[in-house]
Design brief:
The complex is a heterodimer of chains A (about 775) and B (about 170). Chain A has about 775 residues and is of the alpha+beta class. Chain A folds into three domains: about 15-25 and about 480-625, Aldehyde oxidase/xanthine dehydrogenase, molybdopterin binding domain (Aldehyde Oxidoreductase, domain 4), CATH 3.30.365; about 30-140 and about 215-290, Aldehyde oxidase/xanthine dehydrogenase, a/b hammerhead (Aldehyde Oxidoreductase, domain 3, Alpha-Beta Complex), CATH 3.90.1170; about 300-475 and about 630-775, Aldehyde Oxidoreductase, domain 4, CATH 3.30.365.10. Chain A has 20 helices and 30 strands. Chain A is globular and about 90 Å long. Chain B is of the alpha+beta class and about 170 residues long. Chain B folds into two domains: about 5-80, Beta-grasp domain (Ubiquitin-like (UB roll), Roll); about 90-170, DNA polymerase, domain 1, CATH 1.10.150.120. Chain B has helices at about 25-35, 90-95, 105-120, 125-130, 145-160, 160-170, and strands spanning about 5-10, 15-20, 50-55, 60, 75. In chain B, strand 1 (about 5-10) and strand 2 (about 15-20) form a beta hairpin. In chain B, helix 3 packs parallel to helix 5. Classes of the chains: A alpha+beta (about 775), B alpha+beta (about 170). At the A-B interface, helix 1 and helix 18 of A face helix 2, helix 3, helix 4 and helix 5 of B.
């Protein structure tokens, strides 16, 4: 790979200093206090109707300013998922509008039915306690298959069958006929091959960003300003406009630093309600912050799913056919809907589709009265990976094959093109998976440990496990990919960079600065990025999701930087018409074709601002429309100790080795991998939002009962890389942010299988499930 | 609104007098009345550690600590750590150098607990440090670079006799 100047350096994060000194401002830090506070009244039934609400006593509580109920808000439904809003030419791709600011139709326990506005949160809570609600209560359905049988009152009237969507992608009849099969089922039943069938489940995981969801709104010049902890400021503006039925230009959204999002903040949750309250109160400043307890059920977690998985395999380690049937529980609202489970079954296919002739990927997304769900880091893929890897682990174990060899025989390799995706965009043009796996094997001591741990007996056992992953970068060709960047040359020769893409903790601002410096020909330290997005002045970008920004928004940075560079060189030519040959910008100088200095960049910049004859503030603003995609690949190797009587798994060592293309900033990529691994360890071993199926009520909505990993729960996390040069990317880079969250859980599952011979299919593998599994096998 | 009272204490080395509602937590007083916004609200029930400050040298969850209890106390927040010329304190510097910072929301709390540790003037094993910091939840880092930063800061402070200097300043 060609060495680059600024790309590939582990420069210190541009936000680090402000974040260790307390100067970095997050949404609530900017709120002018005291201001009005708003808090939500959540329904205490799981399904039914609000018949009436008596708020008279709440209004009498000292400090209460206003109470609004589901009968007061506009009768407007709006979509909340963080996706582009297509124009009329592609209206069929728009998200479904199924949310109201407050709704008398209660679809899930905790639905929003009223709001109290008061001078402080104590008065809010006292007001909430005085509201009297009369409900008509209907039975709750939580199981998607039960829900599909039909309910007397559909969860959403527009879908009487409670079905959000059903999709099927399978090997064509023609190809099946060529192979001598009448159907996929016949292929799966081929007596020449070994047949496997398993049932797999994955629970709802919660994002648990440490900053809650918070916004404050105020009026300004007849418009509404909303400062919010969002991943998607431009989409937030549009959704507020839609929800209030006002022109989108009448809304200004400001996104400062945010304290983690992981997908929660790729939905618009309470900003529209807050904006509406502000509007009712003449533009008074209103703050609305969810409590930690509310976050678990009032924002959207990872969709719980079940999978029926089947496969056949021959004696030479080749998969011959696979089938996956998925049911995904979206809860009471659609939010990101079917896109999530499509990602599950698609990635199931892509990962091990090299040898097999026959494939079937079928998926249902279903409305229930469960908590509403949405995007969470890696967007459906960890669930599909769990299903794919349970299958691979079982086959290797049962047939006595080496798990790595079997996987690599079937795993995605360079040249793969997905036959079911539009165009040839989902294809592996760069693929370092084989090297990743070799590095991982070496680190964990695969062969040695397989041998040492093979004949262990007794209650405490050890094992090593593996799993692989594949992840696409951004959302093309399935959806629009667009980004805009803006750059200005300052008087001192430094560069002002403005992005619509958002820093959410992942290090985006730092790598954008590096890419800008690379493209213009200056140092990263010369680039000043405006971290805050303000829809009044910030260029358009869809925001932080789908591991898209470094690839898509990075393409905008590169193009904008190249345009600005050319403008600088053209201005140098204007100033120095006699300079020899083609000009170049390097080392803060304009140089001629033989490398002689023509002028300093800062001199040129001053001329650009103040030249009496021809001044020009040199500026570039470019929008890119990206149609390509790129597949990141990698693996996890884990070593565990299993205490069977205690049902306790200790992850002793764990490594992710990833091909994320070229690393723009190796240290920030490493950061992402550490964090993703920890979330997947939690996902695999203990994170589960518990829902009472009778009432739909969430049972563990606090950080004591919903556990995320602490310093005591994690081993040292090892992150290594194999760099490839992705040809479709601005600088050879591929998806990073979500990728490390995919494979650790399944690698731990594989290590437990290696240690104990017991197969677990239900994620998370909690002590209870582990103990029951070991007891069933007579091991405890 | 209840009748306000006056809190008199030391905050980041300066004598402070500020009015407060007697129902108020120190978290709200520091954030809303003194604009020390490094003190973060993550859970309000002592589960996450984001609101940790030093009260008389002891790392304390301010969401669980009534402002009233802070009368006459010496309070230190992240805003009070850097030298007057802006030079970062060794703990802050280690967090920057080791890439311990991502979204940054839990970081002020983690830094303050680390300040409590470095002021003891002794070294700790990595496992001991893990235990000492287990009251802080971070969702971004997997604690890997955080532990590296804390280890580095603790060792640096022991080598340079930092606890005595910090003691002398306080």
């Amino acid at each position: 790979m060609k060495k680059l100047r600024e790309v590939g350096r582990s420069v210190v994060r541009v936000d680090a200093r402000d974040k260790v000194t307390g100067r970095a401002m997050y949404a609530d830090d900017l709120c002018p206090k005291p201001c009005l506070e708003a808090r939500i009244l959540h329904a205490t039934i799981g399904n039914g109707l609000v018949k009436s609400i008596d708020v008279s006593k709440a209004r009498e509580v000292p400090g209460v300013v206003a109470v609004y109920t589901c009968f007061d808000v506009p009768d407007i439904t709006y979509p909340v998922a963080g996706h582009p809003w297509y124009a009329a030419s592609k209206a069929e791709k728009r998200d479904v509008a199924d949310r109201k600011l407050l709704d008398a139709r209660v679809r899930l326990y905790g639905d929003n039915i009223a709001v109290v506005v008061a001078e402080d949160t104590v008065a809010c809570d006292r007001g909430l306690a005085k509201i009297e609600v009369e409900y008509e209560e209907w039975p709750v359905v939580y199981d998607p298959k039960e829900s599909l049988k039909g309910t007397e009152h559909p969860v959403q009237d527009r879908r009487p069958d409670n079905l959000v969507a059903h999709t099927l992608a399978e090997t064509s009849k023609e190809k099946l006929a060529e192979l001598g099969y009448a159907s996929v089922d016949e292929a799966l039943a081929d007596p020449c091959h070994h047949h496997v069938s398993i049932h797999v489940e994955s629970a709802e995981q919660s994002q648990v960003h440490i900053e809650t969801c918070v916004s404050f709104c105020y009026g300004e010049s007849g418009r509404i300003v909303c400062v919010s902890s969002t991943q998607i400021p431009h989409i937030c503006r549009r959704v507020i406009g839609q929800a209030l039925g006002i022109p989108w230009g009448d809304v200004r959204v400001i996104k400062p630093y945010i304290g983690g999002g992981f997908g929660t903040k790729q939905d618009i949750h309470y900003e529209p309600l807050n904006a509406w309250i502000c509007q009712q109160l003449g533009g008074a400043c209103v703050r609305l912050e969810l409590s930690r307890e509310e976050l678990f059920f009032a924002t959207s977690g990872r969709q719980p799913k079940t999978f029926e998985v089947e496969a056949t395999v021959d004696d030479d380690m080749n998969l011959r056919a696979r089938s996956i049937l998925a049911y995904s529980n979206t809860g009471g609202y659609i939010h990101h809907g079917h896109a999530l489970v499509l990602n599950s079954v698609n990635s199931f296919r892509w990962l091990y589709h090299t040898q097999e002739d026959v494939i079937r990927c079928e998926a249902y997304t279903v409305y229930t009265n469960g908590p509403h769900t949405g995007a969470m880091r890696a967007y459906g893929v960890p669930e599909g990976n769990w299903a794919a890897e349970c299958l691979m682990g079982d086959i290797a174990y049962d047939r006595g094959w080496d798990g790595v060899e079997f996987r690599m025989k079937n795993a995605i390799r360079q040249g793969f093109v997905d036959e079911f995706s539009p165009g040839n965009y989902i294809s592996s043009r760069s693929n370092g998976l084989a090297e990743c796996v070799e590095k991982g094997k070496r680190y964990i001591g695969w062969d040695e440990h397989k041998a040492t741990y093979a004949n262990e007996t007794g209650p405490i056992r050890h094992g090593v496990g593996v799993s692989l992953f594949v992840y696409k970068t951004a959302v093309a060709p399935f959806a629009l990919e667009t980004a805009t960047a803006s750059m200005t040359l300052n008087q001192d020769g430094s560069i002002q960079l403005q992005m619509g893409a958002t820093e959410i903790g992942q290090g985006a601002d730092t790598v954008f600065s590096q890419m800008a410096a690379e493209a213009v020909g200056v140092d990263t330290e010369d680039v000043h990025i405006v971290s805050q997005q303000d829809t009044d002045v910030t260029p358009y970008d869809s925001g932080a999701y789908a591991s898209r920004q470094t690839y898509v928004s990075g393409t905008a940075v590169k193009q904008t930087g190249q345009v600005l560079r050319q403008k600088i060189l053209d201005f140098a030519r204007f100033l120095h018409p006699d300079a020899q040959g083609e000009l170049d910008l390097r080392d803060h100088m304009i140089v001629d074709v033989v490398g002689n200095k023509v002028c300093d960049l800062c001199e040129l910049a001053l001329e650009a601002y103040y030249n009496m004859d021809h001044n020009d503030q040199l500026h570039a603003h470019e929008t890119v429309n990206v149609h390509t995609n790129a597949l990141a690949v990698g693996c996890t190797f884990a070593e565990v100790t299993v205490d069977m009587p205690l049902g306790q798994v200790t992850v002793d060592r764990i490594i992710n080795v990833q091909d994320n293309g070229r690393l723009i900033n190796p240290k920030t990529v490493e950061q992402q991998v550490h964090g993703g691994m920890s979330q997947s360890i939690g996902y695999g071993l203990y994170e589960e939002l518990l829902v009472d199926e009778r009432t739909g009520r969430c049972r563990n909505n606090n950080l004591l009962d919903y556990k995320i990993p602490t310093t005591m729960d994690l081993p040292d996390l090892e992150a290594q890389f194999v760099e490839t040069d992705e040809p479709t990317a601005p600088y050879g880079n591929k998806a990073v942010g979500e990728t490390p969250t995919i494979s650790p859980a399944a690698a731990i599952r594989d290590a437990i299988l290696d240690a104990t011979g017991v197969k677990f299919y239900h994620e998370p593998m909690t002590p209870q499930r582990l103990f029951e599994g070991f007891r069933k096998e007579g091991l405890v | 609104m209840m009748d306000m009272r006056i809190l008199t204490c030391t905050v980041n080395g300066k004598k402070v007098q500020v009015g407060y509602d007697p129902r108020e937590s120190l978290l709200d007083t520091l954030r809303n009345r003194l604009h020390l916004t490094s003190v973060k609200r993550g859970c309000e029930v002592g589960e996450c550690g984001a609101c940790t400050v030093l009260v008389d040298g002891v790392a304390t969850d301010t969401c669980l600590y009534l402002t009233q209890w802070a009368q006459g106390k010496d309070i230190l927040t992240v805003e009070g750590l850097a030298a007057p010329d802006g030079t970062l304190d060794p703990v802050q510097q280690a967090f920057v150098d080791e890439f311990a910072v991502q979204c940054g929301f839990c970081i002020p709390g983690l830094i303050m607990s680390t300040e409590e540790i470095v002021r003891t003037g002794r070294t700790y094993s990595r496992d001991e440090l893990r235990k000492l910091l287990s009251g802080h939840l971070c969702r971004c880092t997997g604690y890997q670079d955080v532990m590296n930063a804390v280890e580095k800061a603790v060792n640096w402070c022991v080598e340079h006799g930092y606890s005595d200097q910090a003691g002398a300043r306080a």
